Amino acid sequence: MTETNANPDTSTSETTSETSDESSGRGKRTALVVGASGITGSALVEQLTASGWEVLALSRRPTAPSAAGTGVRGIAADLRDPDSLRAALASEAPTHVFFTAWQRMPTEAENIAVNSAMVRDLLAALAHASLQHAALVTGLKHYLGPFEAYGQGTMPETPFHEEEPRHETPNFYYAQEDELFAAAARQDFSWSVHRSHTVIGHAVGNAMNIGLTLAVQATLAKELDLPFVFPGSATQWNGLTDMTDAGVLAEQMIWASTDPAGANEPFNIVNGDVFRWRWMWPRLAAHLGVPAERVVGFEGEPRPLEQQMAEHEAAWPAIAQRHGLVEADITRLASWWHTDADLGRDLEVVTDMGKSRAAGFTGYRRTEQAFADLFDRYRAERLIP
Description:
By secondary structure, the chain is an alpha/beta fold. 40% of the residues lie in helices and 13% in strands. The chain contains 15 helices and 13 strands. The longest helix is centred in the first third of the chain and has 17 residues, at 108-124. It is globular.
């Protein structure tokens, strides 16, 4: 995900941004990363510290600097408690905010109420700070609709472009954007919105972690002599798609927050390559050590992981003990439901990157390599054998 520090293939734009910021006389930059322990937040902390930023890592529990290096200070606060936010941030003065957190609720009405309030209350708690920029991560449900109306109604033509109008269906991404726009106008800072596709990157205990989910599926397949079955739809198996590496997403957020060309704009963000799962699936199996004869593609109908894996989850603690793995709780590693949702779509999802390319962002990551690097990192950390 560029999983470790800045992406070496795309570091030029970060260096340029930092130089131009220093020459503008703005001085030391301090980033508040909201959701610092998540997939995108972790990548941001790594890239920001590698580039010399001071980083405030906000999460529900205190965050240790650990591998992120020096320059990181953990802040514990509950995003759903305005008093907690005000108390935690009263003496902080970040120059930049990177908002990467969300909470899934039972209904879209609750998603809107909770997730828009988190953005509103966080930015309100920083009314005393001289913010320069706030960057918000959303996603392609901006184009596809929320969970309750996903893929329904008239869909825009693919690849998706940022100028597509909003759907009439209420959507918590729209509500988050509106809170960001209002705070930016009120507190006089610039903003950017980053619409990612399925994000792959390093995190544990994350509800949307397709990379680790597929690695756990492959481990169960190897250990229990099971087929490694693609769980999704014929459309996803045969059609073109793309993905977002968390390192590329982090790089775009940093670029937009420090380059005037990125100010006050929404941007799509994907790796820059496209693929078909029928091409990718056997390659992922090879990277994960699954024998070729056990690799099974789409056959007739989707076979969701929630159904495939239900009877095999109980085997994970013994597998973890046998291989000396550090996490015996499979629910902290695999998010079957979210991977099923991504791979089960019955429509093409491909994203245009022309807008940020024209503005000067040139980050790129080959998706197969992003997966391979991620699997290597999970092995090194003893999360998979």
